[in-house]
């Protein structure tokens, strides 16, 4: 089955064609980073307008890359939430239009389910029950997986997401936007033990990153003489420690047979290395998508959509975008 996937939840316009939830035939992503950089973050109205301008061309480019036309598409999957309401509506409208015109099945996908499903595109088998750490600019979630579509959130951030903390930390350090990749690069040149930033470990499996953001701000306001690379390295190390600590505790206690990593921050060099090392020490198989599938893309939406359709899930044209859509199983 060939699924056309559409993703427009934030500031990437993406269309993909994926076969049987595993094989990418095309995956085109148009980023708006340069557009929003001058504002230091994503401006929702501008993001929506950019999607409107781009979606037609990106759709055509994806089909061209796959070397097929609409007649080769068997179903359509689109992000239905969470995300920016206006941005979501652009992708949803495009998906409905294709599904209606071609008489194709339509399925709405939870954005976080899509990030989890990016791991399916690696070709590796998943050992269930598995635990997936999803880390992005808007989410820091621990998801227990009983199958490709049976997902339960067992831990989440109570305030800021790890990706947001990295971006805001970069702003405090004067490093620009997006800040996560810049901190990642600088941290490799710095001393991660230069500043003993606090770590927050909450009861259960939840996360909190608001405290470390404040600690970095106070450090800078105090007029520290430390190199920016040392601040970046220490700040990133603290965030990685919190993510890894809670994740490994959860993996042990829920009896996970495999650990997965997903989301935009899964591209972070230190986080990938730490989780791989922690899993190796615990004898736990570890899986993470390639970096180009960690950030928002439509291939992951098509992959999730395939398994939802296979499980019997199907939406009609009344499907709407929900900015705070809760994660639900098939």
Structure, explained:
The structure is a single chain. The protein folds into 2 domains: 2-117 and 293-310, 2-Layer Sandwich (Nucleotidyltransferase, domain 5), CATH 3.30.420.40; 128-284, Nucleotidyltransferase, domain 5. Helices cover 42% and strands 18% of the residues. It has 10 helices and 10 strands. The strands form 2 sheets. The chain has a 5-stranded mixed sheet, sandwiched between helices. It has a 5-stranded mixed sheet with strand order 8-7-6-9-10, sandwiched between helices. β7 and β8 form a beta hairpin. The protein is globular, with a radius of gyration of 20 Å.
Major pleated sheet: 5 strands, mixed
What proportion of the residues is helical, as a percent range? 40-55%
Assembly level: single chain
Gross morphology: globular
Strand order of the largest sheet: 3-2-1-4-5
What fold name stands as the CATH topology of the largest domain?
A: Nucleotidyltransferase, domain 5
- What would you say the CATH architecture of the largest domain is? 2-Layer Sandwich
Number of strands: 10
Indicate how many domains the architecture comprises. 2
> Beta-strand percentage?
15-25%
Structural class comes to alpha/beta
The CATH homologous superfamily name of the largest domain equals ATPase, nucleotide binding domain
> In whole angstroms, how far apart are the ends?
18 Å
Overall mean confidence score, pLDDT: 95
| Secondary-structure element series | EEEHHEHEHEEEHHHHEHEH
Radius of gyration from the alpha-carbon trace, in angstroms: 20 Å
In the predicted model, the low-confidence regions spanning at least 5 consecutive residues are: none
